[in-house]
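Q: What would this chain look like folded?
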Amino acid sequence: MKALSNSPSLAFSNPQNDVRMDGVYFFAAGGDQIAPRFALKHGHYAYCFMVCRGDLTLHISFPNKVSYPLNKGDIVGISGLVHHHFSLTGDADDESSAVVELAQQPVNSISDQAAVDLLIGVVPSESLALSGMVLGAFVVSCNDTPDISRRIWKAADLLEDEFFNATPELNQSIIVRRVAEIMSINMTRWFVVKGSSDLFPASGLASDAGVVQALFAFMNDPFKEWTVDSLAKTACMSRTKFSECFRRATQATPIQTITRMRLRLIAQRMLQQKLTVDEAADLAVYSSASAFIRAFQKEFGITPSRWRKDNSLQRLIQTSG
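A: My prediction, written as structure tokens:
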């Protein structure tokens, strides 16, 4: 979810700035429309995933491989660029079964008899998706931070008032955006209070404003030829101090982190813009196509060409289905 609008680099050092959730929308999922293994749509989206009813498990492979059980009342913030999937609790996470994209249903369409009932908020934003990729997924639990959880769910009740009316209210889209902004502010409060992610405890970015500043500079221009020196200069730190703070906050070096983020961003663009391998290598600031292929294969386990072919086919299957 979004932390700040015009100055995202101040997300944690100055959480008093205004918030705008332009383009936000909500959908629901539940009942027999939920597959045993599903994922949110991959791409430049920031998601607020709310469990209204039921139990399931979130599985993530970046930056670390981890599974997290979710129960009624849990709220998850996650980037669409983070490789993930959900599985229904009680069913084994059978890797032989396909992970399908979660079917979107109108907010007012879920039956009270559904075993699993989900509400998902979506913000289409490249910058937010990249920032969420760095900060990691996080879970707001009613048991852990009851006040913040209660405020977010009260905001969700306002959405219910809007969507469950037979006739859309005047200026409904404005109300929906305002409600999303209330949710976002409270999720930012959660991050400031916690100082790190439940899923990734090492992600202590809230206390390293310089590191956050450098990361958001990268996010605003991800295909610039960034070096440790230029990132450190953006953070107003020496190279040594910046590298130490960065590793403490993310458990990785600056180059490792921006390389992984850039590869995942370019992988998405290969599908969207139908880039050739040479074009992708050039955009991703690699000296040669062979160097790009080696880095891509190390990250994803397959070549760029194979990855694009497999994912294009999967998209075609999902669309035709």
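The first helix runs from residue 126 to 135.
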